[in-house]
Every structure is written in structure tokens, then in C-alpha cells.
Amino acid sequence: MPEQWMIPVIAIIVAVILVVVIFLSLWKKVPQDKALVVTGLRKKVISGGGGIVIPLLERTDRISLENMKIEVRTEGARTSQGVDIRADGVAVIKVKSDMESILMAVEQFNSGNENHTIEVIKDTAKDVLEGKLREIISKMTVEEIYKDREVFASGVQEVAAVGLATMGLELKAFTIRDISDKNGYLEALGKPR
Description:
By secondary structure, the protein is α+β, with helices and mostly antiparallel strands.
């Protein structure tokens, strides 16, 4: 007699365990500094939490939301006066955290390997930043660049931020570390008359 009620109880326990195992195999957890882009049945972004992903019907791609430091250098950029300037700077960029930006970044940079994707983002952002640095140098005089590095850096930051935003990237900071020239023009500016 007791064996008759054991069969339904065991069946219920097995069913519950099976449901839990299936749920756990579908659940994908993502840390705060990463984003998981799910495509297939629906397009969604999971970041700093978890969500259900159906294998075979949905694909996942992971992208980093961490800050990335980039060394920026220009050689022989000409000012508005035609003076060759060398400028060194540091930029901090990241993939913006909103869904639209994450989707843009994955579309443009995803290589299937998270570390390689970071390198592709850094290389592309470096090219954009160096181009914008040259652009701003060409619009300023040597004296303007020398006297007010902050205005110079903020000009580069404003122009570059627009270009990077179209790729889903955000320019967190940009700093000019050094400005020099081969002809001694800047050195002469710093000397008392």
C-alpha cells in the first residue's frame, strides 16, 4: 500500500528537478562590467544580471563595458601657422551602457572573441582620436596650443566624442601629456624675452 503513493511523489520530485535543471541551463548570468547581446528570436541586451537564452534558436555575443586606456600620439601635425607639432595624450573610452550603443558596438566591432574585440575597439578609437587631434592642431596657432592645453584637449574631446558616439563608444577623458616640436619653437615660447 505505501508503495502506491511513492510512485507519484518520486515522479513529482523528478519533474521538479528536471524543470530546475532545464531552467538553469537556459539562464545566462552577466557581470556588471560586461554585456551579453542576445539575437535570434528577439534582440536584447543583458548586463549586470541574468536572462533566459534558448540554445539553437538564439545566439549570444559578449562585449566589455570596462574603461579602456589608449595612448594617442601625432607626429608632424601642422598648426594653422605651418609649424610641425608632436602631441602625446591619453584617452579613456568605453562602450556606452545603453542598449542602442551596445548593439551598435557589437555590430561594428564583434569578432567572436571578447579580448580581440577590445583590441579592435582600441585600434579604431586610436585612429579616430589621432585624426581629431590633428584636425584641432591644424585650426590652432602654436601659441594657443602652448598657452592653454585645457582648451586644446577639450576641443579634441568635443570633436572626437561625436565620432566615437556613432560607434557606440563614449570618450570618458582625454588629457594632453606632452606637446613638442623639432625646431625648438615651443621651447623659445617658454623662455623669458
